[in-house]
Amino acid sequence: MTQDGMVIENPLSGERITIRATAADTAGDVLEWTLELAPGGAVPSSHAHPEQEERFAVIAGRMRFRVAGRRVIAGPGDVVRVPPGTVHHFANAGAVPAIVAVETRPALSMRDLLETAAAMAQDQHRRARRLPNLFDLALFMRDFEREVRAPYLPAAIVQVALAPLAWLAARTGLDVRYRNLHVPGRVHES
Known about the structure:
Layout: E1 7-10, E2 15-21, E3 31-37, E4 53-60, E5 63-67, E6 70-74, E7 79-82, E8 88-92, E9 98-105, H1 110-126, H2 134-143, H3 155-172, H4 176-181
Antiparallel strand pairs: 1-2, 2-3, 3-9, 4-7, 4-9, 5-6, 5-8
Helix pairs in contact: 2-3
């Protein structure tokens, strides 16, 4: 298995992600990554992965998870499994960085999602914006509909609500910033 080593940083969430093995390395089965989460860091919002399972193995520090409404505190040696379609959230529950080995099965385009989310957060941070650009968010949710969905709302309603925004962004050129952050189908070198 090739060790990728690519590092992805999100200045808003405090996430530092190191890709350990890509879908290309594992015949599409799994994306293996290490999450280092700063004290006070948290994934930006609750979410679900419609087709993917995530497995979090805490190596160091303490993590707080909410999985299907159930709160879990995990420390070194603990494993938290999130089945496909399950709403979840996670945060660092301690005063030191938490380090977690994560597996996402199947990999799908999760690596692209992580890269694009971090690039959007970096752009948002540079512009000192509290919320992401609505057009960027609509395009992101459309591009990664197999990998992520909003919690609690039926996917069809979210798609119907975001489709006009994505269409308008593409039609009027408002998608340029997002396209510069994300290139669908990009081939990654390992």
